[in-house]
């Protein structure tokens, strides 16, 4: 019996909920979030700063959402209103939960996953996500004013440029080095002196190492092993899970970015979620080796076993092994496909 573990945003939904919250409630919030996301990429992937993990963007933005009067209820209602699922994600989730032990492991905030659970019928007890409570903090008037000022200062900073070969701060262009140092000051010196420092200290986003821990927790529930896990993800927050699962179970980058492709063993490009069912069936019949064999073939003959509602959609995809010989070409193709499916702004995020 295989076990399916999936990221949410990308493999199941089209949103980047945190980006959209910032865009909706913080002036210049799209630029603000994009810069902090790039800062997250640097801290997690280049500097590998102790105590920091991919996806901690979701705690970095909380002081500013609070400063612009976002509440738990507002976050919940916004998530319900803006939820956009990948085509055929809802039938896939219904099929998956009735066929295999299936878990969603997401960095996204819990209100967003509650919205998905409500429309799909997927049980919340099988979802790992980031717990947040904006009501835990009361900002002083001067703190609110300071955070709003800092948000606009961040939004107006130049975008950080990270060369592919960068291994530390000095490998970045001089202007980007200055931006990193400025953000270090804001997040690790200024904000901790305010009541909003609570978010940086207490919120623990389910990304990076926490996603890998969640996979292990899901195995403790089912009693299965890593060899029996098929994991589908798409971004930097999935890297540690891919490294955990790769060469044991199935590690699949779905419309993934550079970070996902660098860590996964297989890649998939598809505009819909019915394709996940194909992967599940293949994996259930032969594990990782069946995926390796299928990756060298052009057609998914196994798809005839899908229910008709999914079979009609399980097409227009590409699946294969990731290799270093054509890696840059694959990155270009996958990231372009990703942006076409999810939109330019969301698709460009790490």
TrEMBL record:
Protein name from the UniProt record: Uncharacterized protein
What's the source species' lineage?
Bacteria, Pseudomonadati, Thermodesulfobacteriota, Thermodesulfobacteria, Thermodesulfobacteriales
Gene3D superfamilies found in the cross-reference section: AF1437-like domain superfamily, HAD superfamily/HAD-like
Superkingdom in the source lineage: Bacteria
């Amino acid at each position: 019996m295989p076990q399916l573990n999936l990221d949410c945003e990308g493999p199941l939904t089209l949103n980047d909920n945190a980006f959209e919250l910032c865009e909706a409630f913080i002036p210049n919030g799209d630029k603000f979030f994009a810069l902090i996301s790039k800062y997250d990429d640097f801290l997690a992937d280049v500097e590998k700063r102790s105590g920091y993990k991919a996806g901690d963007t979701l705690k970095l933005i909380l002081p500013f959402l609070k400063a612009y009067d976002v509440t738990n209820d507002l976050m919940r209602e916004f998530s319900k209103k803006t939820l956009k699922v990948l085509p055929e994600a809802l039938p896939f989730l219904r099929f998956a939960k009735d066929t295999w032990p299936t878990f969603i492991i997401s960095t996204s905030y819990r209100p967003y996953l509650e919205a998905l659970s409500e429309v799909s019928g997927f049980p919340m007890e099988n979802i790992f996500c980031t717990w947040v409570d904006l009501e835990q903090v009361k900002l002083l008037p001067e703190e609110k004013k300071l955070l709003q000022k800092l948000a606009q200062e961040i939004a107006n900073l130049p975008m950080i440029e990270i060369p592919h070969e960068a291994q530390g701060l000095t490998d970045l262009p001089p202007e980007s080095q200055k931006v990193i140092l400025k953000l270090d000051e804001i997040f690790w010196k200024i904000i901790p002196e305010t009541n909003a420092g609570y978010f940086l200290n207490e919120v623990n986003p389910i990304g990076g190492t926490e996603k890998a821990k969640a996979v292990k927790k899901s195995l403790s529930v089912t009693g299965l092993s890593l060899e029996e896990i098929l994991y589908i993800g798409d971004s930097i927050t999935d890297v540690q899970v891919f490294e955990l699962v790769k060469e044991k179970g199935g590690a699949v980058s779905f419309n993934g970015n550079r970070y996902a492709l660098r860590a996964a063993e297989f890649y998939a490009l598809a505009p819909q979620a019915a394709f996940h069912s194909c992967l599940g069936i293949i994996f259930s019949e032969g594990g990782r080796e069946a995926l390796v064999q299928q990756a060298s073939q052009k057609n998914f003959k196994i798809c005839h076993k899908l229910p008709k509602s999914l079979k009609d959609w399980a097409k227009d995809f590409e699946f294969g092994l990731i290799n270093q010989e054509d890696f840059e070409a694959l990155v270009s193709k996958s990231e372009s496909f990703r942006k076409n499916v999810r939109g330019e702004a969301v698709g460009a995020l790490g």
